[in-house]
Amino acid sequence: MTAETSQTLDRGLRVLKLLADTDHGLTVTELSNKLGVNRTVVYRLLATLEQHALVRRDLGGRARVGLGVLRLGRQVHPLVREAALPALRSLAEDIGATAHLTLVDGADALAVAVVEPTWTDYHVAYRAGFRHPLDRGAAGKAILAARARPVGEPGYTLTHGELEAGASGAAAPLLGVTGVEGSVGVVMLADAVPERVGPRVVDAAREVAEALR
Fold first, then answer.
1. I need a labelling partner for 112 at 20 to 30 A (CA). Which of 22, 35, 65, 208 fits?
2. Which InterPro entries did the record assign (predicted)?
């Protein structure tokens, strides 16, 4: 540190970098140890960063990078969507259902990219910007399930009628994208999700993750 720099700002930026380098967040104690400062300082840093949506804390108290980081660059969301679109388009056309990329925003799941199939007579309308609690719907539940599984272990989640009557969903989490929690999924008008859809969604999530790295 020099006379021209801010120690507090430096620590805040170091917090963001530390959180960006982990997929599962860090506790106050872990951040305190890594920064070499006491817990009170960390609490203050996190509270300030949370006010600007640069950091969020989950129900277990672990701090993670917030979507406010994405908003710092106006072109980031378009870049994320652009990177995900080829895999989403392929998924929507292959399955004949609306495909989406969903990211965590606080306690909500936020759809940031949506592609509808071109060849079906009807499909579920699902719009970018749609949000819902993480514990409802396949997109959010896939993210929650990934937190409970061993790091890097793929899997998918199926739901029915949780967000829209008569609609079923399938989603798989994004894995290995530093600082980003999200999922890729499809939503369809069906009583049950066909067997092949789950593995296909896992493949699409892997493609999107590779595009975002």
1. 22
2. ArsR-like_HTH, GAF-like_dom_sf, HTH_MetabolicPath_Reg, Tscrpt_reg_IclR_C, Tscrpt_reg_IclR_N, WH-like_DNA-bd_sf, WH_DNA-bd_sf
